[in-house]
Design brief:
- The chain has 7 helices and 12 strands.
- It is globular, with a radius of gyration of 18 Å.
Length: 283
């Protein structure tokens, strides 16, 4: 019988932390690990970190925003949507990461990422060389932060509408490379594209990753997508590609998704020419 039939499931780890698993397949993976090779081929995993919000159920809302599970189904991935913590009953669910604290005081969300991957390695037939992270807003901060601190774990990250805290910038300048695909609107009012006193600008973050990934400044830039609203520019650095998709006219949005829920109604309606971030990252 299948350990996990295809579909969506909620799971609670031993420490009480929870996440939502999506698998497109009837999953027999670990039934054979102890006595022989797994019965399913190893498959990639994407971890999808939600933004700081109070929409319940949180994972279902993140799927509405991102449509990551649909992308996982189309392209053959597992998808895990972790659930953040909150400081009080009236607070929002979120993460404690580099540059922003939205979770319960003292909670270690870097350890949570480790625990999720350990669980997946034991219970799913995951290709450990193809684990990816994406996220929106605070979840984008956490994806950048995981790439910064755990480069050996992730094959690539795709943050949407996020940044890094200025006080953590120097920490992330050095380390092993990680392929990066970022999406950010110049009209984002919540996490400003140009940065602020707390957070680096998108240009600064992109340049940091180019340098960390081995670009020397003389690489040829490739435009992978261009329209009236969107321009994606990719550089093939020695250690891993860095691609930056810049948009015009959108607020704080999962690009090509639906509204993040807390900005002006209609501010995240897809414009003609907007890239579909979810499809682009899977491609």
């Amino acid at each position: 019988y299948a350990l996990y039939p295809s579909g969506t499931f909620n799971h609670t780890l031993e420490d009480g932390r929870t996440f939502q698993l999506f698998t497109p397949w009837d999953e027999f993976a670990c039934s054979g690990y102890c006595t022989g090779p797994p019965k399913s081929p190893p498959r990639p995993l994407v971890i999808n970190w939600h933004g700081c919000n109070a929409h319940v159920p949180v994972a279902a809302y993140q799927e509405q925003v991102s449509r990551i599970e649909q992308g996982a189904s189309d392209f053959g991935y597992y998808a895990i949507t972790p659930i953040g913590t909150k400081e009080s009953l009236i607070a929002e669910y979120g993460w404690n990461t580099l540059g922003i604290k939205c979770g319960k005081f003292g909670v270690d969300d870097f350890k949570f990422a480790d625990d999720i991957i350990e669980w997946a390695s034991k219970n799913l037939c995951v290709d450990l060389d193809r684990i990816y992270s994406t996220g929106f807003s605070t979840g984008a901060f956490h994806s950048y932060s995981l790439a910064c601190r755990k480069p050996a774990t992730f094959a690539g990250v795709a943050p949407i509408a996020g940044s890094l805290g200025r006080i953590h910038y120097s920490e992330c300048e050095s380390g092993d490379p990680v392929p990066i695909l970022s999406f950010h609107s110049k009209d984002d009012k919540t996490v400003p594209y140009e940065g602020n006193l707390e957070w680096e600008s998108q240009e600064s973050v992109t340049k940091m990753w180019e340098k960390r990934n081995g670009c020397e400044g003389n690489e040829t830039s490739t435009i992978t997508y261009q329209s009236a609203t969107t321009k994606c520019v990719r550089k093939e650095c020695k250690g891993g590609a860095v691609e930056d998709c810049t948009l015009e006219g959108l607020d704080h949005c999962w690009v090509g998704g639906r509204s993040g829920g807390f900005q002006t109604p209609g501010s995240c309606v897809k414009q003609d020419g907007d890239i579909d971030a979810t499809t682009h990252m899977f491609e």
